[in-house]
């Protein structure tokens, strides 16, 4: 998996400034937040996924991390060349249940990418679903040409029409045989995209990101389709800086849980997202006066709740608790430091509301509060300075500027929704045990995917 701003990334842009990156972080987090606010899941269709390996061998799609936004590289299809598959980049998406990619035939309805759309018709193992296989009750449609399509519209304005099909996916694995390097997952259901509108990837000049790897709770998800082999378990560890890491599955992920805290995951039948039971927030060892009910999910109108999701760069919090937390953060910074001044938004142009400039090097250090999210089972998700504040050097004064990297949901579709994003998850081992509705986590270095 590769970070968008890593030199190894298909979307790397050498001329992008730090200010530009932060602005993109804010805008993409808001976009993702709105997308989650209107995303609806699906239910099961029959699947006959098979693999060519034993359960003591581990799937290890490689991740190259550098900050935020991560992509998984997978092989897909069966072709008359070596290797027999074609490699594409899929954005890891735990809030979506459908794996999809752009395919031949999308024409003017593709978003921009440097690689050609997937040539599905040339693959020996590509099998589109017929109308007889189309799960009408779950949102699929039969077209006049006999194709079964999946239509999805997201709250951020993007939309997708994809042909439902099965295909062979290939990836690296670590197993008992040193000569076995590739594992094939057969008959994986995915969406072959023929009409994609308003996806942000298309605005990047050298974009090679072709689709999404759906790792949500829905039955169409990649995770569900390998569940027989990997027990509904996957794990990642997002580092600071560029480092080799992996998307781990099954026993390979579960062997890492010793010493980790665990909390419950709340799962809802029609939603692919992973909800956590957020019960409180501590700032600088003080538990804030926040009613846990403000973090509750409302099943009637599908609003609120707390989601864990590595797609948005910055976390977004429901307005009421955000205001209380922000006040506590501001009070701490201004009480603990005499060498900073608060900036207004017009001075930063970053879209972040809480920013401070270090106006003196006496003292040379700026103190920030420790923030803790308290989840069910008396677990504590501790946020470090690095995950809650981002720094840059002012072009005007040459001084350091520090900005709080959590956003208020007041301007979003669902003002009650809280999302724990990638920046706040960094330097944590995260293990999703979906079958048992548990999330394991603890701080970890992540470098080399320890």
Question: What's the structural blueprint in terms of helices and strands?
Answer:
Layout: H1 18-37, E1 50-51, E2 58-59, E3 62-66, E4 71-76, E5 86-93, E6 100-102, E7 127-128, E8 140-142, E9 148-153, E10 159-174, E11 182-197, E12 209-214, H2 222-225, H3 227-230, E13 233-237, E14 242-246, E15 248-249, H4 250-254, E16 261-268, E17 271-276, E18 278-283, E19 286-287, E20 297-298, E21 303-304, E22 306-308, E23 315-317, H5 319-336, E24 340-343, H6 345-348, E25 355-358, E26 371-375, E27 379-383, H7 385-388, E28 389-393, E29 400-404, E30 406-408, E31 418-420, H8 422-425, E32 428-433, E33 438-443
Parallel strand pairs: 5-12, 6-11, 22-31, 23-30
Antiparallel strand pairs: 1-11, 2-10, 3-14, 4-5, 4-10, 6-12, 7-10, 8-9, 9-10, 10-11, 13-15, 13-32, 16-17, 16-33, 17-22, 18-19, 18-26, 20-21, 24-25, 25-29, 26-27, 28-29, 32-33
Describe, in plain words, how this protein is organized in 3D.
The protein is mainly beta. The chain has 8 helices and 33 strands. The radius of gyration is 22 Å and the shape is globular. Residues 35-48, 51-56 and 175-180 have low confidence and may be disordered.
């Amino acid at each position: 998996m590769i970070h968008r701003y890593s030199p190894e990334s298909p979307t790397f842009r050498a001329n992008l400034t730090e200010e530009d990156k932060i602005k993109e972080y804010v805008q993409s987090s808001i976009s993702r937040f709105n997308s989650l606010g209107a995303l609806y899941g699906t239910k099961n269709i029959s699947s006959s996924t098979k693999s060519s390996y034993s359960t003591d061998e581990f799937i290890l799609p490689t991740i190259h991390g550098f900050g935020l936004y991560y992509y998984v590289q997978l092989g897909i299809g069966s072709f008359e060349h070596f290797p027999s598959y074609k490699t594409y980049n899929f954005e890891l998406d735990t809030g979506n249940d459908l794996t999809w990619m752009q395919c031949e035939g999308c024409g003017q309805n593709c978003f921009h990418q440097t690689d050609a759309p997937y040539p599905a018709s040339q693959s020996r193992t590509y099998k589109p679903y017929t109308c007889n296989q189309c799960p009408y009750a779950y949102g699929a449609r039969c077209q006049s040409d006999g194709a079964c399509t999946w239509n999805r519209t997201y709250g951020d304005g993007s939309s997708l029409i994809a042909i439902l099909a099965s295909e062979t996916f290939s990836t690296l694995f670590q197993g008992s045989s040193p000569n076995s390097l590739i594992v094939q997952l057969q008959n994986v259901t995915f969406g072959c995209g023929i009409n994609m509108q308003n996806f942000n990837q298309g605005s990047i000049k050298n974009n090679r990101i072709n689709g999404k790897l759906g790792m949500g709770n829905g039955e169409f998800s990649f995770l569900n389709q390998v569940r027989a082999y990997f027990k509904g378990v996957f794990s990642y560890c997002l580092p600071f800086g560029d480092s080799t890491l992996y998307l781990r599955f099954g026993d390979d992920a579960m062997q890492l849980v010793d010493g980790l805290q665990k909390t419950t995951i709340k799962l809802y039948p029609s939603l692919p997202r992973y909800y956590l039971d957020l019960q409180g927030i501590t700032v600088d060892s003080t538990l804030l006066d926040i009613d846990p009910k403000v973090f509750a999910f409302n099943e009637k109108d599908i609003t609120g709740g707390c989601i864990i999701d590595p797609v948005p760069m910055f976390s977004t919090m429901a307005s009421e608790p955000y205001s209380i937390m922000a006040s506590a953060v501001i009070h701490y910074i201004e009480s603990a430091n005499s060498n900073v001044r608060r900036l207004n938004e017009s001075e930063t142009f970053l879209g972040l509301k809480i920013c401070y400039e270090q106006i003196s090097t006496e003292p040379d250090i700026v103190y920030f509060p420790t923030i803790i999210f308290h989840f069910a089972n008396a677990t504590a998700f501790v946020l470090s300075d690095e995950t809650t504040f981002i720094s840059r050097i002012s072009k005007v004064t040459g001084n350091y500027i520090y900005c709080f990297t959590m956003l208020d949901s007041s301007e979003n579709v669902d003002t009650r929704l809280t999302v724990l994003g990638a920046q706040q998850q960094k330097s944590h081992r995260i293990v999703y045990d979906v079958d048992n509705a548990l999330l394991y986590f603890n701080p970890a270095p992540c470098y080399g995917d320890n």
